[in-house]
Amino acid sequence: MEGLFMYDAKLATFIQVVRAGSFSKAATQLFISAVSIMKQMNSLEEMVGVKLLNRSTQGVSLTKAGNFFYESVNKYMTEADRIVARTRDIAQRGPKTIKIGTSLLRSAQPLIKVWSGMADYTDYQIDLVSFEDDPLSMQRMFINLGTKIDFFVGPMNSEQIEHGPYQTYELSETKLYWGVPISNGLATKQRLTFDDLQSEKVILVKRGLSPRLDTLRDRLEAHHITVIDSDDFYDINTFNICSQNNYIMETLGIWQDAYAPIKAVAMDATYQMPYGIVYSQRATAAVQQFIELIGAEYRRQRPALTSG
């Protein structure tokens, strides 16, 4: 996976930590946990072989070696981005290759189904770039939007997407469900009310990451239902934790078949999440044109492509 990217995501995290002045501020800006930030910085220092950051209760500061590393990394990342942009410009003179990111929870398969029926558009060819849904891999993927990945498709209601250097193209709204372990008696129900969840524990992304999930959290807390924070957005490990600990989670219609031990059960009220394409503000004209083409066709075919 590392070979797919021009530079390690830990370098971008290092830059953000230095600019923010603390792990906690950098974590807020990058929408990942402070623990994840610290692990990355420890790993980076181990990889480089020297101490880069002075740590204190007031925050972090650069060592002498760290200052040299910081200035050098800034130059390196700028040059790497320039090389990639120039390379892509040259490539666009021939058939236009569109690189679509795909993962278990952010699968490109719905768009591939649409594209398979668009045989008349021979100016484009598609390359799929796989990534994982864990926090570090997601961070790396976001860093590489507009370079190694043109776009990905998935849920879009996050502060990171809304306030980051990204654009979106909404394809549809996907329903929210309760993800219930198949060993839990509630999995036999067709629909769950908040009263059904009174004695359960529900995993939800921590407050402030997704406005729509914050609304759902408000309803859960108003009904005195125990909510357990997930520090980051979901990956396969979140499903594992729910299955192993008999927790209930919020899940999406597009994930109903993602993990067999967790069954999607309807909510008693309609909650939805915007679903669509996320791409860089620096996207080329060719990428933007492709998104408009495939997006319009997806909307036309939507009843046959979406569930829930």
Key attributes of the depicted protein:
D-Maltodextrin-Binding Protein, domain 2, eight-stranded mixed beta sheet, 41% helix, 10 helices, 308 residues, alpha/beta, disordered N terminus, Arc Repressor Mutant, subunit A, single chain, 12 strands, two-stranded antiparallel sheet
Overview of this structure, please?
The protein has 308 residues and is of the alpha/beta class. Among the domains are: 1-91, Arc Repressor Mutant, subunit A, CATH 1.10.10.10; 173-274, D-Maltodextrin-Binding Protein, domain 2 (3-Layer(aba) Sandwich), CATH 3.40.190.290. Helix content is 41%, strand content 24%. The protein has 10 helices and 12 strands. It has helices spanning 9-20, 23-30, 34-48, 64-91, 109-115, 135-143, 159-163, 211-222, 236-245, 285-305; strands at residues 53-56, 59-62, 96-102, 124-130, 151-155, 166-181, 191-192, 201-205, 226-230, 248-252, 262-267, 272-280. The strands form 3 sheets. Strands 5, 6, 7, 8, 9, 10, 11 and 12 form an 8-stranded mixed sheet that branches. Strand 3 (96-102), helix 5 and strand 4 (124-130) form a beta-alpha-beta unit. Helix 5 crosses helix 10. Mean pLDDT is 89; it is low at 1-5. Belongs to the LysR transcriptional regulatory family. InterPro entries: HTH-type_LysR_regulators, LysR_HTH_N, WH-like_DNA-bd_sf, WH_DNA-bd_sf. Keywords: DNA-binding, Transcription, Transcription regulation. One of its GO terms (cellular component) is cytosol. One of its GO terms (molecular function) is DNA-binding transcription factor activity.
